[in-house]
Every structure is written in structure tokens, then in C-alpha cells.
Design goal:
With 377 residues, this protein is of the alpha+beta class. Helix 7 packs antiparallel against helix 8 (272-300) and helix 7 packs antiparallel against helix 10 (342-354). It is globular, with a radius of gyration of 21 Å. It has eleven helices and ten strands. The two termini are 42 Å apart. Strand 9 and strand 10 form a beta hairpin. Bound molecules: flavin-adenine dinucleotide. Flavin-adenine dinucleotide binds at residues 112-116, 121-122, 146-148, 202, 351, 354-358, 360-361, 364, 377.
Length: 377
């Protein structure tokens, strides 16, 4: 699998990604190439146009994408196709699966994941966007932020409040999940100018009177948060795989440069102050990879995987970030030049550090759920 994905990625070299980073155009050619060979449906069941493989295979695929130099620009362009519609796979009706999954597996439709809100941040249970039932439809009003690929998406998976936060009930209890058309007559999509990954947009959404057919609601009303939670661990696993891949791309460039660059009459890589950080990066990436594969194996075998999935995301983001930072410093001043690509990797590597969950919140999770310490927030 890795070799097959690498072969496709080899057609899109670092210069392609540098160009996308400059012009900000969505990498359509890359998206189509993966779609043409059936990769976008890797986790979608075979009955609905996919390959029906596990998170382990998806992780190997996404790691090969980032490691090729495509980085987060490549991975985020297809991330939603790979596992984003898992709530539909698990909780959708037969009719919904037939309608919603094949276009995503074939790459004919793009979707975005609209959860984060400006006034809720990481406290997802406190989302404020509302979906009010009116006969056969829901009318959605509210605002979302950081929604990736909304400039190019046809559909969105959106979490909205169908019941107000009420005393004696958990705030998350009134949230419902919908997979519906991103109708731009009722949704203003405003791009956020950001640090990296320019080719894959992130946006503010202003939703004003969007009518969503009740047939687009996934599962039961009020249980949307539960459905989203089910997909969080695999998402952390995939993000971990992506971070490790990009870290390896950075390490490969740094190592090659350390062998070539001669200063003071010898290759800089002959100095231990250059060698040792690179050796540390290799070990830390390998260790994070093992944790990621453990989590993926657990998920695919129905074993509780939350500690390993969270730990993998944390360790991979830290190891990947260190590798990208070390790659810049190994290149000296040239590390700051776009031509050497490592500054782009470094900017993109901030994303797995920050999203979909912050390192602080992972530490809180491990402290509370694994070590049994009191909840701190
Ligand atoms: C490039 C990019 C793409 C994204 N794409 C999407 C997308 O497609 N769809 C989507 O729904 N979202 C997306 N997100 C949003 C992302 O998931 C959120 O940014 C992330 O969940 C953090 O939320 P926040 O930014 O509001 O941080 P906040 O909740 O405001 O937190 C800010 C900081 O405070 C810390 N903090 C908060 N509370 C505590 C506490 N109790 N203890 C310790 N520390 C605490 C956090 O760890 C964090 O460091 C994206 C974000 C980025 C940057």
C-alpha cells in the first residue's frame, strides 16, 4: 500500500507543493490522482464504493502522502474523504449510506467538517449554532470557525443544537449531526488567512436560515455529540500518522543536506551537534509511529484505544515538530529560504500541534482517564 501511494505522490514533487503554497490553489490534480486509483474510499465499506479497509491502512496511506513532501497540504486535501464520513458509515440509514458515501469514495464530491465555533473552542458541548425543526426540515442558524475545505466543499458534516442547554441535562445532550449540502445562498464562507497550508483553505462560516431536510440528519436527534466522539480516536490516529510522515520528510531533507554541506573543511553532518539532534528526531518519530500503530491496531480490533490514540497524536506532533524545527536549523540560513522546502514543512507542522485537539487537553485526558486524577477543567 505504501509503495502504491508513494508512486502516485512521486508525480507531485516538492515544487508542485511549493507552487500550491504560493498560489493557494486547491491541489485538484493530486486529489483526482488519488481518486482515480480508488484511494479516497479506503475506509468506506465495499458495498458503498470503497475498499472497506481499516484505520491502520488509512494511516499508512496518509503517512505516505505527507512523507512524500506533500505534507499537510496533500493530507488535508483528502483527509475528510478518508475517514470523515465514519458517522454515516456507523449511524446512517441504508438510504443515507447509498446516497452519501459513493460520491465521497469516488472523489466526485468534497465535504467539510463543521464543528468548531468561535464562542465554544475546545468546549464542543457548548456549541451555539441552532437547528430548529419545521415540519420536514431543520432551519440552521449560527457561526462556525476554522472549517477546512469549505471553499471547495459540496457538502458539510455539521453539528448543531436541536435542544437548548437545560439544567439537569448534559450540555452535549441537545446536539444533532447532519450531513447536508453546503448551500452558499445561506452560508457565507469567509477564508481565514493563515500561517501555512495555503492550498487547503480554512474558513469562517456564517449560516443564516439554511434549510436542511430531516432526511439529512444522521442518527437520532440529540445524539450528535456521541456520534462525533466515536470518530475522534481514528481522527487522532490519522493526524498522528500525518505528523510522523511530515517529520520524516523533514528529517530526510536535513540528513541529505548535512551530508552535502561543507563548512570548516568537512560536511556539517560530521559534527555531533548536527548529528545528535537528527538521531534524536529519528528515534522519537519511530517511537511515535509505534504508538500510532498500536492505537490503529486497537481501533481496528475493537479494543478501547483512546489512551493510545491521544498519546499517539501528542507524541507524533511533538516529534514531527522537533524534526521540522531541526531540519530548518540544520540548513542554517538556507532553512529560511522557500527553495529548500523545510520552512514550509515547519509552518505546516504547527497544525497537528494545535488541531484537532491541543496538547494541553490531551495531557488533561491522560491525567484524568488513565491516571485517575481529578478532572481539572
Ligand atoms: C489549520 C486548522 C484547521 C482546522 N480545521 C478544522 C475543521 O475542518 N473543522 C473544525 O471543526 N475545526 C477545525 N479546526 C479547529 C481546531 O480543531 C481548533 O482550533 C481546536 O480544537 C482548538 O480550539 P480553539 O482554537 O478554539 O482553542 P481554545 O479552546 O480557545 O483553546 C485555546 C488554548 O487554551 C488551552 N486550554 C483551553 N482550556 C484549557 C484547560 N482547561 N486546560 C489547559 N489548557 C486549556 C488550549 O489547549 C489551547 O491551547 C482547525 C484548526 C486549524 C488551526
Amino acid at each position: 500500500m505504501r509503495a502504491a501511494v508513494e508512486k502516485i505522490c512521486a508525480r507531485f514533487g516538492d515544487d508542485y507543493w511549493l507552487q500550491r503554497d504560493r498560489d493557494g490553489k486547491f491541489p485538484q490534480e493530486f486529489y483526482r490522482a488519488l481518486a482515480a486509483d480508488g484511494w479516497l474510499g479506503v475506509c468506506i465499506p465495499q458495498d458503498f464504493g470503497g475498499s472497506g479497509l481499516g484505520v491502520c491502512e488509512a494511516a499508512i496511506m496518509m503517512q505516505a502522502v505527507t512523507a512524500s513532501g506533500a505534507g499537510l497540504s496533500g493530507a488535508s486535501a483528502v483527509h475528510m474523504n478518508i475517514f470523515g464520513l465514519n458517522p454515516v458509515v456507523v449511524y446512517g440509514t441504508e438510504e443515507q449510506k447509498r446516497r452519501m458515501l459513493p460520491p465521497i469514495a469516488a472523489g466526485k464530491e468534497k465535504a467539510c467538517f463543521a464543528v468548531t465555533e468561535p464562542n465554544a473552542g475546545l468546549e464542543t458541548a457548548k456549541l451555539q449554532t441552532t437547528a430548529k425543526r419545521r415540519g420536514d426540515i431543520y432551519v440552521v442558524n449560527g457561526a462556525k470557525i476554522w472549517i477546512s475545505t469549505a471553499q471547495v466543499a459540496d457538502k458539510m458534516l455539521i453539528l448543531a443544537r436541536t435542544a437548548p442547554i437545560a439544567e439537569g441535562r448534559k450540555p452535549a445532550a441537545g446536539l444533532s449531526l447532519f450531513y447536508t449540502a453546503l448551500d452558499r445562498r445561506f452560508v457565507e464562507v469567509r477564508e481565514i488567512e493563515k500561517m501555512g497550508r495555503k492550498a487547503v483553505d480554512s474558513n469562517q462560516l456564517f449560516i443564516d436560515g439554511l434549510e436542511v431536510p430531516a432526511t439529512d440528519r444522521i442518527g437520532e436527534e440529540g445524539r450528535g455529540f456521541e456520534y462525533i466522539l466515536h470518530g475522534l480516536n481514528p481522527e487522532r490516529i490519522l493526524v498522528a500518522a500525518e505528523a510522523i510522515g511530515l517529520g520524516r520528510a523533514a528529517l530526510a531533507r536535513a540528513t541529505a543536506y548535512a551530508k552535502e554541506r561543507v563548512v570548516f573543511g568537512r560536511p556539517i553532518g560530521q559534527n555531533q551537534a548536527i548529528q545528535h539532534p537528527l538521531a534524536e528526531c529519528w528515534m522519537e518519530l519511530e517511537a511515535a509511529d509505534l504508538m500510532m500503530l498500536k492505537a490503529a491496531w486497537q481501533y481496528d480490533h475493537g479494543v478501547a484505544c483512546a489512551p493510545a490514540a491521544n498519546a499517539a497524536k501528542y507524541l507524533a506532533a511533538e516529534a514531527g515538530f522537533k524534526a521540522c524545527q531541526t531540519a530548518v536549523t540544520t540548513h542554517g540560513g538556507y532553512g529560511y529560504a522557500k527553495e529548500y522546502h523545510v520552512e514550509r514543512y515547519f509552518r505546516e507542522m504547527m497544525i497537528p500541534k494545535l488541531a484537532p485537539v491541543s496538547p494541553q487537553l490531551i495531557l488533561c485526558f491522560i491525567a484524568e482517564k488513565v491516571l485517575g486524577l481529578p478532572k481539572s477543567y
